[in-house]
């Protein structure tokens, strides 16, 4: 890898982040209505206090958050806040900061979605490679139709089906939440098992919803790879079938899958908003869903900013490790 290429890719990463952050700043301010007054009206409706002068309090909030300043000044302040790791204060849950809310929700989302993505990727890629391997038993190909069906069903619909079956009709798993309300969390086996039990249904809905797409994509690439000359040459040399399958077939078919995996891992923070909201799972998705409903655009901006950075960094990393996956790729 040349220094020139690394510098070029780094500058490209910086440009992408700059453009995306700028769009992230502008879009929430295009939302109709005044988000400050909306947030205050929601708090007043919840508390039942009707003696509050919403307009005066809203003016104080705008001054506190800098929303009464010119647009260009708000933009410069936004960049300054980013460099200070200050994403503002939640309008709905004032005085809670955006960073504190994201910090509380992020571990739940990372644990759930990274596990679901990696399981679906691993199983889906292996099943897809076997479906594209000509020596796989014919009965194994009966899985194609179920995988096609799973790839067309949205995550949240699978979640509704699983919730209805295994939490209502057959109450095997908890219907929602991150842990039991009577549990005092701690670093012990009971807490781990309780959290695992609450995460199984959302995890299963994400795995079932993703495994079909991974398997069908891998199957198509495996069929394409099987027609290459190096496969024919490896077979002519008398190499074992397992080695041809793993090192010549599956390894080369994995390249497009790895790009998709980088996108999936980069978007893992906000990738299952409806699933988390459906199961009341205390993750980033539920936080984002509530922020959109309450027009809490400081929280929206903070979550989208983290998503932007995660996607950009994931693509940057996968671009750098491509030569390790395929020696034919060279950085010139």
How would you sum up this structure, described in words?
- With 332 residues, the chain is an all-alpha fold.
- The protein has a domain at 106-294: Orthogonal Bundle (MetI-like fold), CATH 1.10.3720.10.
- The protein contains 13 helices and no strands.
- Helix 6 crosses helix 8 (189-225) and helix 10 runs antiparallel to helix 13 (297-325).
- The longest helix has 37 residues, at 189-225.
- The radius of gyration is 24 Å and the shape is globular.
- It starts with a helix and ends in a 7-residue tail after the last helix.
- 30% of the residues are buried.
- The mean pLDDT is 77.
How is this fold's topology laid out?
Blueprint: H1 3-26, H2 35-47, H3 54-65, H4 71-83, H5 98-132, H6 144-152, H7 155-169, H8 189-225, H9 229-236, H10 241-266, H11 273-278, H12 284-293, H13 297-325
Helix pairs in contact: 1-13, 2-3, 5-8, 5-10, 5-13, 6-8, 7-8, 8-10, 9-10, 10-13, 12-13
Quick overview of this protein structure:
This protein is mostly helical and 332 residues long. It contains 13 helices and no strands.
From the N-terminal CA to the C-terminal CA, the straight-line distance is 8 Å
Low-confidence parts, pLDDT < 50 over ≥5 residues? none
Number of helical elements: 13
N-to-C series of helices and strands: HHHHHHHHHHHHH
Portion in beta strands: under 5%
Largest sheet: none
Strand-pairing-aware structural class: mainly alpha
Q: What is the CATH domain class of the domain at 106-294? A: Mainly Alpha
Instruction: Tell me which CATH architecture of the domain at 106-294 applies here.
Output: Orthogonal Bundle
The CATH homologous superfamily of the domain at 106-294 corresponds to: MetI-like
């Amino acid at each position: 890898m040349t220094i020139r290429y690394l510098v070029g890719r780094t500058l490209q990463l910086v440009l992408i982040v700059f453009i995306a952050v700028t769009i992230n700043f502008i879009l929430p301010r295009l939302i109709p209505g005044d988000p400050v007054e909306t947030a205050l009206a929601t708090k007043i409706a919840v508390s039942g206090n009707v003696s509050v002068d919403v307009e005066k309090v809203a003016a104080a909030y705008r001054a506190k958050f800098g929303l009464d300043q010119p647009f260009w000044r708000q933009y410069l302040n936004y960049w300054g806040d980013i460099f200070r790791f200050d994403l503002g204060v939640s309008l709905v849950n004032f005085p809670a900061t955006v960073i504190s809310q994201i910090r509380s929700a992020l571990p739940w989302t990372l644990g759930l979605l990274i596990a679901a993505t990696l399981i679906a990727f691993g199983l889906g890629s292996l099943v897809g490679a076997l479906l594209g391997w000509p020596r796989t038993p014919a009965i194994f190909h009966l899985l194609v139709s179920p995988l096609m069906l799973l790839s067309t069903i949205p995550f949240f619909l699978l979640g509704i089906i699983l919730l209805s079956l295994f939490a209502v009709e057959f109450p095997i798993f908890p219907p929602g939440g991150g842990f039991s309300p009577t549990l005092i969390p701690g670093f012990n086996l009971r807490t781990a098992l309780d959290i695992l039990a609450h995460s199984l249904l959302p995890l299963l809905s994400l795995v079932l919803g993703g495994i079909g797409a991974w398997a069908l994509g891998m199957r198509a690439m495996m069929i394409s790879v099987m027609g290459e000359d190096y496969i024919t040459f490896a077979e002519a040399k008398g190499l074992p079938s397992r080695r041809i399958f793993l090192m010549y077939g599956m390894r080369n078919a994995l390249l497009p899958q790895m790009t998709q995996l980088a996108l999936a891992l980069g978007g893992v923070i906000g990738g299952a908003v409806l699933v988390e909201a459906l199961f009341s799972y205390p993750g980033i998705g539920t936080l984002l869903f509530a922020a959109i409903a309450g027009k809490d655009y400081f929280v929206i901006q903070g979550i989208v900013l983290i998503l932007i950075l995660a996607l950009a960094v994931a693509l940057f990393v996968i671009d750098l490790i491509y030569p390790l996956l395929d020696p034919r790729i060279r950085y010139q």
